Structures are given as C-alpha cells and as structure tokens.
Structure prediction request, 93 residues.
Amino acid sequence: MHVGVCTLHLRLAGRHSLKEKRRVVKSIKDRVKNKFNVSIAEVDALDNWQRAVIGVACVSNDSGFTNSVLSNIVNFIDDMHLAEIVDYDIEIR
Prediction:
C-alpha cells in the first residue's frame, strides 16, 4: 500500500474577507474531490484571507499511480486560475 500526500500553499490575491476565501477554497476542494476521488482539506492558515494551505491524500497499490494522481491534481488546481500556487510538496510512503 502506498500513501501519497500533497501539500499546496496557495495565494489568494484580491480576497478581502474570510468569506471570499472560503468560497474559493470550497470551489477548489469540491472540483478536485469530484474529478479525482481523493481526500482533500484546508489544513493551515485558516484565518488568513490571502493564504490557504490545502492537503490532499491518495492511497493506491502503485506508487507511480499515486504520484501521477497528485501531480495531475497540482496541474488541475493551477489550470483553474482561482489561486496562485506558491509552493507544493508531494510525499509518498
């Protein structure tokens, strides 16, 4: 069994309230979950309206597949143009 975890640090430019931030983060989470069937949550910077840290987890019997899914999620989020990806980290165990 291989567990992959991806942590994405996002910048939400132009957001001026937590309500705006939560709307964008919820949209990202819902789209990723529906397309890739992974676990996803906001894990840090909860009270900062211009930053978000999102964690994504994927479990598979093939580490290559797990890495591919997480890489595709990073590209998918980047292609949404809802937030700027400042940094991300993929870890597979």
User: Anything to note?
Assistant: The mean pLDDT is 93.
